[in-house]
Amino acid sequence: MISAQVLEEARLLGETLSNSPSNYIIHVFDAQSNTKIMNSAIKEIERICPNKAVMVISSDLISKKLTVLCQVPKVLVSHGLKANEWVTHISKTMDGKGGGKESSAQAVGSRIDTLEEVIRLADIFASTKLTNN
């Protein structure tokens, strides 16, 4: 049930933002930090918006976990936005660890109360990287 809702939300988000001038999308899904569902959401958005970087965030109040997954297309990696650096930039704020490759990365933290700050920092980081390069 959650999976279908998240996929539909991802599809609508991708369709809504496909013509947006922004090169990246940051979105919070109610996926209870389920990485399989979150990854499916990223793939759905990428299918519709293949040249946009995507960061998806989800929290799980029961396990007190904040999970972040991101994908960055090669064209944006070459402009300076790297997925592993993007998650590393926000990991400390959420009292977590992150890592991965230039094109895909993830982070998990225990500070679910930092969600708004994580979004703000992720937005500033992506905007700065893509504006300066």
Automatic annotation (TrEMBL):
One of its GO terms (biological process) is alanyl-tRNA aminoacylation. Residues 23-123 form the DHHA1 domain. Gene3D superfamilies: 3.10.310.40. GO terms for molecular function: alanine-tRNA ligase activity; aminoacyl-tRNA deacylase activity; nucleic acid binding. One of its GO terms (cellular component) is mitochondrion. It comes from the Eukaryota. Coiled coil: none annotated. InterPro entries: Ala-tRNA_ligase, DHHA1_dom. This is DHHA1 domain-containing protein. It comes from Schistosoma curassoni.
